[in-house]
Amino acid sequence: MSLYATSGRRKRSAVFDLLSLDRLLTGPVIHMIYWGGLALILLFGFGAVGASAGLALRELSFEGLLVAIPALVAGLLIMAVLALLWRGACEFFVAVFSIAENLNIMRAQAEREGAQQTPPASGPMNLGD
């Protein structure tokens, strides 16, 4: 059952979907936010790599290298953890909004089934002679 279909045979227009709030747009919006967040996390990772490389090049000694390598590893690990946390948060929001869409579909089905059912026929009333 698609949310695009109305009770008739016509399909709804995209403008009607935007104005009526019957179709949620949060899925595509969250998808764009997810990729934007990943880009920021990747930018942080490049910053960590650049900072550790700059530290190693500034200190052309063994001690500078001993400081730069753990900084590089820590920056990359933090980047990986942030990417996983960001993915989890975005999946949580997608799940919540997909539940809302599923509830809308279930409501439409229940309304359609309720309209198809006919009330029971009442028999002759006996008012007690």
Instruction: Describe the main β-sheet briefly.
Output: none
Provide a count of the helices.
3
Q: Using DSSP, what is the number of strands?
A: 0
Radius of gyration: 29 Å
Helical/strand content category:
mainly alpha
Report the principal-axis shape: rod-shaped
Helix content: over 70%
N-to-C SSE string, H for helix and E for strand? HHH
Short description:
With 129 residues, the protein is mainly α.
Describe it for me?
The protein is mostly helical. The chain has 3 helices and no strands. The chain has helices at 14-20, 26-58, 62-116. Helix content is 74%, strand content 0%. The two termini are 53 Å apart. It has a domain at 48-112. Helix 2 packs antiparallel against helix 3.
Summarize the helices and strands and which ones pair or pack.
Layout: H1 14-20, H2 26-58, H3 62-116
Helix pairs in contact: 2-3
